[in-house]
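Section 5.1 Outputs to date
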Amino acid sequence: MKTIKGYYGGSSTPCLIFTDDGWYCVEGSQNVNRTRDEIPEGVNVEYLNDYDCFTWPDGIHSEDDLAAAIEA
């Protein structure tokens, strides 16, 4: 589990991205995605190739939130 800095959206909005074994989520988002791609520091998540996803109604605001959502 780690937190990196990256970007999302067409205008490359800066954000924090929580990651764990291919799962990732932009801070505050309800969308949790999984990729086989590397998720390096500075990544724009729009360019990652996802193969799985789910929605977490409370949003993901920390690494602990991501861990809890993945385990649920």
